[in-house]
Amino acid sequence: MPTIRSQISISLDGFVAGPDQSFDDPLGEGGERLHDWAVNSAGWRRRHGQEGGEEGPDSRVVDEGARGIGAYIMGRNMFGPPGGGEWDASWTGWWGEDPPFHVPVHVLTHHARESIEMQGGTTFHFVTDGIESALEQARAAAGEQDVLIAGGANAIQQYLAAGLLEELHLHVVPIVLGGGERLLENVGDPKLEPVEVVASPAATHVKYRVG
Amino acid sequence: MPTIRSQISISLDGFVAGPDQSFDDPLGEGGERLHDWAVNSAGWRRRHGQEGGEEGPDSRVVDEGARGIGAYIMGRNMFGPPGGGEWDASWTGWWGEDPPFHVPVHVLTHHARESIEMQGGTTFHFVTDGIESALEQARAAAGEQDVLIAGGANAIQQYLAAGLLEELHLHVVPIVLGGGERLLENVGDPKLEPVEVVASPAATHVKYRVG
Question: Do B13 and A184 touch (CB under 8 A)?
Answer without folding.
Answer: yes
